[in-house]
Amino acid sequence: MLAASSDEPTDVNEDMPVLERELDSWFAPARPRTVFKGPHDTTRVLLVERDPLHRRIVRVVLGGPRISLIEVTTGQAALDLLAIKRFDLVIIGGQHSIMTAEETVRWIRSSLQLWSDIAIMMLLEESEMHLGQRLISSGANDWARYPVQRDELVAKLVALMPALHDAGL
């Protein structure tokens, strides 16, 4: 072990100099893929939900300083926004009047844009549970149920995107 000089920063919890610890971290196992892909420091989430109460619940569950949540009420609005702004995750509620959730997922996946492989989480009401597997077949990554159970939704989102844990979920 190298002796620490008086001007070299040291870790107060260990006798090992910070530089040595950083060098050791180069050889540590690789960390899971992170969603922080660019020069931003937040996870950008697009919520597609027409029900204001459901939007508010998701807003509370995902509330945090490192999660940016933008809300739209239709699938078409989501597609328009995806075309001009980058997101890490799309959360889609089940019922929409203009474009169904399944159509929205299919449009996203069939797009030739960079965002066609974005992570998609569906939120389904009790009466829509039978659609879960069909939505997965359409291209959604996973689904959770309404009423939102915070622990279930957070566990599924973190499993889908491990960096959400680091972002405060």
Tell me what you see in this structure.
The protein has about 170 residues and is an alpha/beta fold. It has a single domain (about 45-165), classed as 3-Layer(aba) Sandwich (Rossmann fold). Helix content is about 35%, strand content about 15%. It is built from seven helices and five strands. The chain has a five-stranded parallel beta sheet with strand order 2-1-3-4-5, with helices on both faces. Helix 2 links the parallel strand 1 and strand 2 (about 65-70). Helix 3 (about 75-85) runs parallel beside helix 4 (about 100-110). The two termini are about 40 Å apart. The relative contact order is 0.15.
- The end-to-end distance, rounded to whole angstroms, is 38 Å
- Mean of all residue-level pLDDT scores: 76
- Globally, the shape reads globular
Oligomer: single chain
Q: How many strand segments?
A: 5
Series of H and E elements: HEHEHEHEHEHH
Write the CATH homologous superfamily: Response regulator
Question: What does the radius of gyration come to?
Answer: 20 Å
Class of secondary structure makeup: alpha/beta
Spatially, the strands of the biggest sheet line up as: 2-1-3-4-5
CATH class: Alpha Beta
List low-confidence stretches: 1-16, 23-39
Largest sheet: 5 strands, parallel
Number of domains: 1
CATH fold category name: Rossmann fold
Reported CATH architecture: 3-Layer(aba) Sandwich
Q: What is the strand and helix layout of this fold?
A:
Layout lengths: L17 H9 L16 E6 L3 H10 L5 E6 L2 H10 L4 E5 L7 H10 L8 E6 L7 H7 L3 E4 L4 H11 L2 H4 L3
Parallel strand pairs: 1-2, 1-3, 3-4, 4-5
